[in-house]
Sequence to fold (170 residues):
Amino acid sequence: MTGYLVQLSIKSRTPGEHGLPKRAVPGLEISPSGAEGDYNDYRTRALHGDPAQAILLMTQDLLDQLNAEGWPVAPGHLGENLTLGGIPEAALQPGVRLQIGDVLLEVSAACDPCDRLYALPYIGIDRGPTFLRATVGRRGWYARVLAGGQVSLGSPVSLLTGPRAIGAAR
Fold:
């Protein structure tokens, strides 16, 4: 199965600012420590740079689902570094590998929603708890970097391994 990169997103370390939403960039250098120029406070401080959470992935499929439910999320809003088009959400799970040019990623774990999402302008404190419930099991996927390299907007993404890697389109 092949998809493509819809958006590449980063947020540099800015004192006093949360990491959401992330801004779009045309290309990224990806290494085992993550996306160059991206700062994830939780990963850095609480997880001490855990390499299993180097990159956060999101599918356009999932963003479309949330939009249909009335949440105006866009690529980069949920903190993901790579937004994948043409890859169904159901195709991702721990152990699935993705090839993007020279970059090889392995999905490691689901990302849990947190109250940092309240910082999104259309969420806020009042709608925050409802949005967190809506994103349980739907906040994206962490991935470890098995091989680093450069990726660009529109680059093809190939699903390589995993129980749903072959014929995952629904």
